[in-house]
Design brief:
By secondary structure, the chain is α+β, with helices and mostly antiparallel strands. The protein has helices at 3-13, 22-32, 34-37, 48-54, 56-69, 96-109, 126-129, 148-153, 183-196, 246-251, 254-269, 288-296, 308-324, 329-341, 351-354, 359-375, 386-394, 422-427, 432-442, 467-478, 504-520; strands spanning 19-20, 78-80, 86-87, 116-117, 137-141, 199-206, 209-216, 218-220, 224-228, 235-238, 241-245, 448-453, 458-462, 482-487, 490-491.
Amino acid sequence: MSIGRCAAMLQQRSARTAVLAPWLLVLIAAIGLDAFAATAAPPKVERWLAVADAGAAARGRFFSLLQRAAPLCQTESIWTLGDPPFFVQPEPPRYDRAREIREIVQAEFGARPGEYVFTWAPTGTPFGKAGARRGDRLVAADSRRWNVLEELRNDAPTGTRPGGGETAQGAPAKADLGAAKTYRQVVAELSAELAVDRERRFILQRGEERIPVLVVASRVCPVGFNVVDSEYRYADASGNDVFVTLPLITSLDDDELTMVLAHELSHILLKHQRNDISFPWGGKLGTPIGALAQMAQNRELESYPLADNELIDSDRLTLWLLKGEQISPHAYLQFLDRMKGEDSIVPKATYARTRPLTPQRAAALREEAVLYDANRSFRLPRGVAQARLQEVVAVGRPTANAGGDAQADGASPAAGERAVSAPDFDRRPLRALGLERFQHYLTLKSPKAFFVFENSAWRFWSDTADPVGKGFAYCRREQKKCFLYAVDQSIVWQTDASRRIVTAEQWEGLSRASAGEAQTGSKEGAPAQPR
């Protein structure tokens, strides 16, 4: 995407929403494009870190889907290390907002000028898989190119790369890009280099510790992802970008978030265009048809729902993507039914209004569920070959562990991470990625509950009535053995297998007993506190 197009995109949206695309914010603060940044209508500076952090899980899930969708890219797929960390400019930017963000990052993370810092958890991305965490500073990199935005900053015949002023070998790295190049050109160049040599070495600063890491590039479909700081819950796909609002992200569990992201990505892959036009058959204000049209309109986007045939085609591709993530069509239909039930007649931007579950769409999904039950397959979206869809399902397909159970849900282990043996599982049931997601879970609203499966997979429910009951209902429906790991902020996991909570009724009994004992001053048998 060219800088001019970025500016135009932000100008179009500035009157209605604040779009928080991480790479756009990095571009503004890192390159110092004062005139470009001034076209945006960003949220208050004090919300910037909070919103970026809250969207971290969605970015990780979306990156995983981009890897899965690489065989279907309408444009050529690319090799990438994912969103780069935030770069602290050596000199304070002229633009007030960029300067304020730089000061916030320096104060929050202790980052120095010329350093990169992870202002959000890079879960699910190459840096996250290599062990990078929120707050880590990237203080050294090897001499090979890795970051598009850094190359744009150094778009001159000579210059020294930032990043602590050194390479992994301790020598300055020179940029030699010649004449100025576009964003797309630099992306293509770095992708070609990463395709040949996928590994890059970095040094992370975590407190006083310097940690060498090896980051391995991934092949993805080059689609943008943006978090919208809106009061409404909806998702949208426009051009080559997916937009999801913060309230929608925080209201969904991991599987539901994956469903939303997969559906929006499917619209991009199938080249569906947002319906921004007025109705040609008399849909004017003051007429019955016009009133209905206004009710259906997403007022924040000034757009109308896509046609049923496009929603159905997108659903079919979504189901193929979800099959690779081991999410069933039944779960997808149940989610859409729930979202429809939560909609209101008040004309406002909602997910059910942007992506309505019409009778025709619901009937098509029920047919797909029947096909899936019969032969574990779906109909083909128009214009997509069966062989490509089989590639999509196979991307990152988990392998069986020593116990014969495939890794499932959101907990597929990072590359090279061994299966957890039985004794290890008793003491520490979550792997590194699961622990990262648990830290995210702790930031979510209550009521909430976190579950662990026998193979160290995990799922959680938050900001919902009876999360424990919903979790165990999911386990029964999917025929999975699961254990309650945490409720709200309290860890209830037990190393003794006989004391683990495996049913909703067991938890309710323990809760009643704990409440009674608390009244008598006894602590015996109370749920374990956070460790």
